[in-house]
Amino acid sequence: MFSISLGDESLGCNAQLRPLEPWQAEEFLAHMNRARDYVGEHIGLADRATDLTSAREFLTGYAQKQAADAGRIYGIWLDGTLVGGVLFRIFDATAGNCEIGCWLEPAAAGRGLVTTASRCLIDWAFGQRGMHRVEWIASAANARSLAVAKRLGMTREGVMRESFLYRGVRRDLEIWSVLATEWQPA
Question: Which residues contact 158 (CB under 8 A, 6 or more apart)?
């Protein structure tokens, strides 16, 4: 199994980015139980993995997406504990477009883990897969996610007003992107 270091161990941060697979459903569910309120503030992942069956189904869905070259999911481990993740929610190699997303539990926030992990995904998408465009779509109310898009050097393209129905409330979505010609690899 591969892992990519996300933190400086000399500073006491032993963080890794690794594939997140169906056999890890119990660990994923335990993580979601710790993160549910924080993650559920803005994204539906908290509502999709509520028991072992649904956690396994969620991860299996991404295993199937990866087999079809249509998406991928990776976990972020901090000191051996799953604390979040990043994913290619959409991956269209033919069109050269993909969308990445993220989530994190509160105990791991503020360390730059999502930004660093997202940078790894974008580097791979452009450098290895020859993608043309990477998108970041988030609730306009999700300041933490929008801050990551800014730190990654993405361009805010616009707002889709009230386009996202979440827990009975219509929310605006912001669309951010970066093109291969604009990307500065790490």
Answer: 174, 175
Helix axes 25-40, 52-67, angle to 10 degrees: 100
Directed axis angle between helix 113-127 and helix 143-151, to 10°? 50
Which pLDDT belongs to residue 1? 55
What is the pTM for the complete model shown?
Answer: 0.92
The pLDDT value recorded for residue 8 is 57
* Positions in the chain short of pLDDT 70: 1, 8-13
Q: What is the dihedral of CA 84, 89, 92, 98, to 10 degrees?
A: -70
From residue 180, give the alpha-carbon distance in Å to each of 40, 43, 58, 107, 132: 31, 27, 30, 33, 5
Residue 121's CB is within 10 A of a number of other CB atoms, namely: 20
CA 71 – CA 99 distance, rounded (Å): 9
- Answer yes or no: are the C-beta atoms of 12 and 29 closer than 8 Å: no
